[in-house]
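Q: Please design a sequence for this.
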């Protein structure tokens, strides 16, 4: 089975492909000749996942899935949320985003946060949503060099290390994306 993943984020594609059985092959947007930065204009994570999946299905005719992820920080009323990738500006720089978040939280005691991923699957003219949540907290300084995005400052609940310090194998089992992908996989196996 071939499915388009409405993304060109090589880290995400590699992470998801590593969780899939070998009979499911992921194609990127680049693989189908889509070089457009699909607009994410919804004010919800679910809405942005739907927008991206619908764009590929409508313009290219492929069965596909798209995800959107946001980091929701309790003390910041759910920010950065849908703006997680561009929290510090349109350059979408992970270090800038982390620095801005750490600055915003400097005077806050409540550092509870959660990552939320929603995957929208368009297959056989039907649409399905799968949600994964990883609860945890924002630590005070960047630690670790694995992963991407906010991983160096996010410590998942029940763990002593950040997402950037734990192995990809463990992260795939406990992360928001891992949980949403697991739900997607269970669905695809039916």
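A: Design:
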């Amino acid at each position: 089975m071939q499915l388009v993943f409405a993304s060109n984020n090589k880290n995400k594609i590699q992470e998801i492909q590593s969780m899939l059985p070998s009979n499911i092959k992921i194609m990127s947007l680049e693989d189908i000749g889509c070089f457009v930065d699909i607009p994410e204009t919804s004010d919800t994570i679910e809405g942005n996942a739907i927008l991206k999946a619908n764009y590929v299905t409508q313009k290219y005719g492929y069965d596909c899935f798209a995800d959107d992820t946001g980091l929701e920080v309790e003390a910041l009323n759910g920010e950065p949320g849908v703006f997680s990738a561009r929290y510090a500006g349109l350059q979408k720089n992970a270090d800038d985003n982390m620095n801005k978040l750490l600055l915003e939280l400097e005077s806050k005691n409540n550092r509870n946060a959660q990552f939320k991923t929603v995957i929208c699957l368009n297959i056989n003219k039907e649409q399905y949503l799968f949600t994964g949540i990883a609860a945890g907290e924002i630590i005070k300084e960047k630690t670790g060099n694995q992963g991407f995005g906010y991983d160096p400052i996010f410590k998942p609940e029940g763990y002593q290390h950040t997402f950037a310090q734990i192995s990809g194998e463990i992260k795939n089992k406990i992360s928001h994306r891992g949980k949403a992908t697991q739900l997607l996989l269970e669905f695809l196996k039916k």
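Q: Thanks. Anything notable?
A: Strands lie at 2-5, 25-27, 64-73, 80-81, 112-123, 126-138, 154-156. The chain has one domain: 2-189.
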